[in-house]
Fold this sequence. Notes:
Layout: E1 7-12, H1 23-31, E2 34-37, H2 43-46, E3 54-57, H3 69-81, E4 85-90, H4 100-110, E5 114-117, H5 122-129, E6 143-147, E7 182-186, H6 192-201, E8 209-214, E9 222-227, H7 231-238, E10 244-248, E11 267-270, H8 274-286, E12 290-293, E13 297-301, H9 304-308, E14 317-320, H10 323-335, E15 347-350, H11 353-361, H12 375-385, E16 391-397, H13 403-410, E17 414-425, H14 427-436, E18 442-445, H15 448-468, H16 470-477, E19 485-488, H17 491-500, E20 509-511, H18 517-524
Parallel strand pairs: 1-4, 1-5, 2-3, 2-4, 6-7, 11-12, 11-18, 14-15, 14-16, 16-17, 18-19, 19-20
Antiparallel strand pairs: 7-10, 8-9, 8-10, 13-17
Helix pairs in contact: 3-4, 8-18, 10-11, 12-13, 14-15, 15-16, 15-17
The structure holds S-adenosyl-L-homocysteine.
Amino acid sequence: MTGETGRVYLVGAGPGDEGLLTKRGGELLKKAQVLLYDRLVDPRLLCRVSEDCERIFVGKDAGNHRVSQKQINELLVKKAREGRCVVRLKGGDPFVFGRGGEEVLALEKEGIPYEVVPGVTSAVAALAAAGIPVTHRNTARSFHVITAHTAKGAAKSGSLTGADGVEDAKGRFVPYGALEGTLVFLMGVGELPALVEQLLLGGKSKDTPAALVERGTTIRQRRINGTLETIVKRAGEYGVKPPAVFVVGEAAKFHLLSREWPLSGRRIGVTGTPAMAEKVADALKELGARVYAAPCLKIVPTKALEVRNPDYGEFSWLVFTSANGVEQFFEQLKAMGKDCRALAFCKFAVIGPGTGQALWHRGFRADYMPERYTVEALAEGTAALAGRGDRFLSLRSEKASCELTEIWERAGIACEDLGIYETAADDELADLLWRQMDVLDTLTFASASGVKAFLDAGERYRKDCGEDGGRQREIFALGGPFPQRLVCIGHKTEEALKEGLPGELWNRIRTAEEYTARGLVEACLGGKGGFL
Ligand code: SAH
């Protein structure tokens, strides 16, 4: 028992895209002590909870038996009774075919406080993300969201041809054939033939536009178009799988998606540390790309600064080679009980604009930044500025190269360097990235250690494929499911990638001309996307 009041938050996770989780939802994820989630939730959201949060999967998984609704209700009550902050995360909106109501009633009965946090429902968002307006003036004046999931005795194709005719109780979709407006069916993939048959019987014309949007708003989104006459066949051809929404009506004719962005239609995976990945992902989204950010590197502070505990008065220059270095340094300084006055007599040098900006955010302007953003240029440039008796302190990643101090030492400058942080692979995110590899046209890398985390995850993935066999193994035989473009921030990153990649794929590698987030983004421009 924590002594706190147990409570439950039913949070709508949105349709898939991380950006469509509400602000309130994001705050609650950080506070969660127990998280109950199901299959539709983007697994990257799960990485946002604290390390000690207990995560419980309560969804249906291929092969595994389903946790029953009753068991879920009991679990919510039990965890809340333990005095914990329980977040029940559900795809879309908790009350749109999410059985949220049943969970709330169970909590009410037990007198447990709860809050429902609405979510963006796939019933509307998956359509918009595919360019289908759910209503449109003079074309679609209403929309109807219908579950196609039928309990036992599901309507099966052909069930209407019996003696019972159209009025057969199993023909429950027939009346919807008379509705105007946009019909949106959820959970309809398995029922598609029966659904279509009954809508036609109910009066819809076979030429009525229809579409399926699979995994709307996510990197795997696909839109399959047709009419009531053709959609079943097309769904089969494309192998549409749940989750998908089935849309019927004139609105399904529209394609309201701009093709005017420099990266329209492109699907780009982004790796790196969280800060770097966010920066690159934001810039790519600004250019119209669909982005899958998988920051597969974590920043872990080392003890070097605490142990050395320098008197900054002894150093004339503090030199940073990454924005992460800046962030770590100031965080650690704070943790050691020091404020900015400790640095009052220091000058600052940074490797490039990103690092400079991070420093500026901490209240210091860089006194020096080289024209070329390389360690060599930084080392030489600062060496040229050194006066008599100057001491340099490099604050860097544990794994970074020693080039900086080597050049200084050769120039006879007194210097010291501290590896104040290191990066560690975030295996969970790297593994998730590999599952999206087949739909990406481009993948970006911001460091050699990021490449390593990615390649290691690839090995794990390859082993997994050995077990579930089939298609993935075929892809590997063809040279791996690597995207057409592999974009590296600089030559060290490129070398690391070449080490892990068969020589015939090296022509997919592009290296940024400028070793910055902007350089990476520019190297992504040009080329085409391919996914539907
Ligand atoms: N509460 C959810 C719906 C749960 S029912 C919501 O508000 O969105 C599950 C069904 O939702 C799936 O079978 C599918 O029809 C639909 N669905 C959920 N996420 C989807 C997505 N990203 N793209 C398309 N359909 C989705």
